[in-house]
Amino acid sequence: MAYTSGNLALKPKRRDNEQEEVIRETRRLVVKKKTIPMGEKLLYLFTVLLCVAIAGLIISRYTQIYDSNMKMKQLNTQYQTLTVEMEEMKRQVEMLSSPERIRKMAEIQGMTTNYDNGISVNRSASGSAAQSSTQE
C-alpha cells in the first residue's frame, strides 16, 4: 500500500494507462403474479350468476306488478263507463215506465179506459167481437 502524506486511508492515484474495470451488477426483481385458484374463480362465477338470477327475478316481479296495475286501471275505466251507461238506462226505464207515457201509448194503439169494466181494446178487424165482449 502506498503511503500518501501520512494517510493510509486514501486510495493511491493510478496512472491513465491502467484503467479500472467497472463492473456493474444489475439485479432485477422478478415478480411472479399469483393466479387465482380454480375454486375461487368458480365461486366468483356462481356469485355473479346468483346476483343476475336475483335481479332477473326482481325485474320479472316488477313487470307482473306493472301488468296488474294496468289491468286494474282498465277495469276501473270499464267500471266507470258501465256505471254511466247503467244510470242512463235507469233514467230511460223511469221515463218509459211513467204512467202518462203508458196512457198515451195505449191511446195511440187504440186502447180506451172504461172505469166501470176496466180497459177495453178496439180492434179494427174484429170490432164486433170487441164490442160484444165489452157488453157482457
What does this structure look like?
The chain has 136 residues and is mainly alpha-helical. It has helices at 38-96, 99-108, 127-135, and strands spanning 111-114, 118-121. A hairpin with a 3-residue loop joins strand 1 (111-114) and strand 2. It is rod-shaped. Residues 125-136 have low confidence and may be disordered.
Number of strands: 2
Largest sheet: 2 strands, antiparallel
Mean pLDDT: 80
Overall morphology: rod-shaped
Low-confidence stretches: 125-136
Layout: helices, strands, pairs:
Blueprint: H1 38-96, H2 99-108, E1 111-114, E2 118-121, H3 127-135
Antiparallel strand pairs: 1-2
Quick summary:
With 136 residues, the chain is mainly alpha-helical. The chain has helices at 38-96, 99-108, 127-135, and strands at 111-114, 118-121.
List keywords for this structure.
136 residues, mainly alpha, 2 strands, rod-shaped, disordered C terminus, two-stranded antiparallel sheet
